[in-house]
Write the structure tokens for this entry.
Amino acid sequence: MTGEIAHVLRNVLGLQAGDRVAIVSPNSTIFVMTFLAIARAGLTSVPLNPLYSPEELAHPLEDSDVRVVLAHPVAAKSVLACLEKMKRKPTLPNGQSSVWLLDDGDKEARGPAPLKDLRSQLNKEQLPVQKIGDSSKTPATIVYSSGTSGKPKGVMLAHDALIANTETVLFSAEADFKPGNTIGAVLPMFHIFGINVLLLSPLLVGIEIVVLPRFDIEMFCAMVQRFKVAFVLVVPPMLLMLARSPVVNKYDLSSLRVLLSGAAPLSRELGDEVERRLPAVRVTQGYGLSETAPILTLTPSSEYRNFKGSCGETAYGVELRLVNDDGKDVAFEQGANGNPGELWARGRNIMMGYVNNKEATDDCLTEDGWFKTGDIAVLRNNHFYIVDRKKELIKYKGFQVPPAELEALILTHPQVADVAVVGLQSKQEATELPLAFVVPRSFDASSAPQDKKDALSRDVIEWVGQRVANHKKLRGGVRVIPAIPKNPSGKILRRELRDSVNSK
């Protein structure tokens, strides 16, 4: 079907080499085939979160100049609502619809009028694999990564970057990525971790992939039992469920061998808790970013018990260095008190740059090809440990939540004069929760009664929840304060606020 979809995109819809195609869909087999079809056709994919609101969809669609949107039925209404608000709408040269349904059900998908199922255009014709020219300079996909300020940035990843990082994964975790080790695909495939570790790497070596549309502990355990799943890529909140949910006791998970955690730091304690409950399982960890396609560090599962809490050793094909605030290399210290520095990376896997954002690109990419991750790390026994980050991103269950984006939204609330958003570390959920500090517009928080502040908090939480994707909701709550702490230049002192809630 991959060749058929590629034929429809080029010869029926009239797309040309380099045109960009958005996929707005949860995990599904049709997502896999469509992603590969777009690459086969010499086009560029733009995978997006199907739970985005119309407002959240508009920016990446306009920013990347998408020509066609392929939307799963669950996202179709949001896509159509988004198009109504867009100033620059997707267009096709031949008058065809620029929005099509994408579903892998047995019957033709139904969605809001006038949308049609892309499968209705399939006619057995196959498109040969298209030549793309220089694979290091031709984007295969654009993934949107939330920044610490402003709107999400489109990360352009070349074909060569994806190829390089599949090599990274397969050589760094060779024992885990081999035929016979069935992989459970639970993390979203619109994320670069899903694209490379759950889609491209397994397919390259012929590993069976079992796809779930989302994580649900009951569905997850049933999947492992039924398909004898051996390897799963997870995030810490999933591990927490596996460690503590009574559902786990109902299923035979004896086939499960490796749980690779990514997207957010994993504590040694949580890894140990999972391994006590599932003694045959090895909980390991990797590290990377959208801009690095993604893997930079990884420890083979066979070695991980000796390096608990580490995000891994330098992965195959990658160069890493630690740099201080003066731009000088930090001496690699192999003892218990490693010298911290910002982690910089170089390799074929590094992004081409951000879409329409030269300033941000120049800010994080050096002339000699080093990418500045923004994360602070130390090196101990040849393994890296992330200890802090320059970036202010909040990571909720593996999803990135940019504080500035929420702050810009909350400032439009009629009762809010000022706001700051930070991450509240939740031990119960093993993740950060977005928390907002707000300064009221109509009363003095220093003297107002508590019930008045509580009412404002509830209103802001509900108001934000109606306007953002699920992972951006203010699950950490809202705290009403007299003023937001700032430095003389007006920059929010986030660390001060973060420490005030996370030190308790």
